[in-house]
Structures are given as C-alpha cells and as structure tokens.
Amino acid sequence: MRSASVERHTAETQIRLRLDLDGPVEGVIHTGLGFLDHLLLALQRHGRLGLAVEAQGDLEVDVHHLVEDVGIVLGMALRQVVGEGKGLERYGEATVPMDETLVQAVLDISGRPHLAFVPEELPIAGSAGGLNAYHLREFLRGLCNHAGLTLHLRLLAGREAHHVLEASFKALARALYQATRLTRDDLPSTKELL
C-alpha cells in the first residue's frame, strides 16, 4: 500500500492529512473552509485517492495560510508515498471541462518542483467561497515544491471563479492519478533517479 500520514503544526495552521494512492476512495475532509473542502473532495474522487484532511487555520486573518499549508502538507505526503519513483508512469495529463470552463493540467513527478500558472494573465472573475486564482496558485506552489512536481496548469476557456477552481482541481486529480500508476518495473528516468 502506498500511503502516508503527515502532520504539520505552525502558529497559523494545524493540519493532519492521510494519503493513500491504492486504497478505497474515502476519507473525511474538514478544513473549516467549505469551498476548500469541496475542492479537496473533487481531488479525492477524480484522483481516486484515499484522502483525509483535518485542518484548522487562522481564518479570522485570511484564507491564504490554510489553503497554502494544505497544499504543502499534501505535497509532503505525496513525496513520501511516491518514494524513489520505481514503477511509476511518472507523467500525467488531463483536460477537464466544466460548463464554459476548460482547464488542462500536465504534470511530471520529476523531483524538480516547477509550477507554470500565472493568474495575473488569466481573466478569472471574482472568488468562490473566499478563494480566488491567487489562492489556487499558492496551493499548487506548496504542492509542487513539497512533492517535487513539475506542473503546467492552463485555463483554456472560462472566467467564473467557481468553475475555474473546481475544473483545475479535477484536471490536477486526473493527471495525478495517471502519473502515479505503477506501469513498469524500473525507474522512469534515463538518469535512473528522479
């Protein structure tokens, strides 16, 4: 079983997260921020993950710390679960529509963190449940930096924040599922190291 449990406690957030790549699609998600729970549930279902998240944050200040730190902790768990990467498919890609919105996620479990997502260039209107494109960027940045992912996220169509954020999480989930499948016996790298 490829699973990990990670806890992270700071002055701003307290997070417990369990990630299982091969177990049943289940787990309670409760962050105190309803729309973040909704997005993480989409990640759980579309990524076919065992994912449980219990989190608290200084929401009286802003949602930023909680959203970013959940991304960090998810990245830490993913890095543990993937380990050296032996047998991984490694690459994943998904394009997901949601009404007027179309989002593409392309990722590489490379060991080299890189995020290509620039919300300033995307015409995303407003926020959804207190979250906007900048919060999405911070979640993804934390995930990439701590999991060692290269991720390109592109908004191909759409403006409404709820649809853009949700389609982004669904595309990420489906690309992640593809990339984490065990499809070989060796390490997917000519360098023999991720």
Describe the structure.
The chain is α/β, with parallel strands linked by helices. The chain has one domain (3-179): Ribosomal Protein S5, domain 2 (2-Layer Sandwich). It contains 4 helices and 8 strands. Helix 1 runs parallel beside helix 4 (161-179) and helix 2 packs parallel to helix 3 (133-147). The model has no long low-confidence stretch (mean pLDDT 93).
Give the SSE layout.
Blueprint: E1 3-9, E2 13-20, E3 29-30, H1 34-46, E4 50-57, H2 64-82, E5 91-98, E6 101-109, E7 114-116, H3 133-147, E8 149-157, H4 161-179
Parallel strand pairs: 3-4, 7-8
Antiparallel strand pairs: 1-2, 2-4, 5-6, 6-8
Helix pairs in contact: 1-4, 2-3
| Overall mean confidence score, pLDDT | 93
Number of domains as seen in the coordinates: 1
Q: Based on the coordinates given, report the CATH architecture.
A: 2-Layer Sandwich
> CATH H-level name... which superfamily?
Imidazole glycerol phosphate dehydratase, domain 1
The total count of helices amounts to: 4
CATH structural fold name: Ribosomal Protein S5, domain 2
Helix content: 25-40%
What proportion of the residues form beta strands (DSSP E)?
Answer: 25-35%
Question: Structural class, from helix and strand content?
Answer: alpha/beta
Strand order of the largest sheet: 1-2-4-3
Biggest sheet descriptor: 4 strands, mixed
Compute the gyration radius: what is it?
16 Å
Report how far apart the termini are.
21 Å
Silhouette: globular
Give the low-confidence spans.
none
State the CATH class: Alpha Beta
Q: How many strands appear in the DSSP assignment?
A: 8
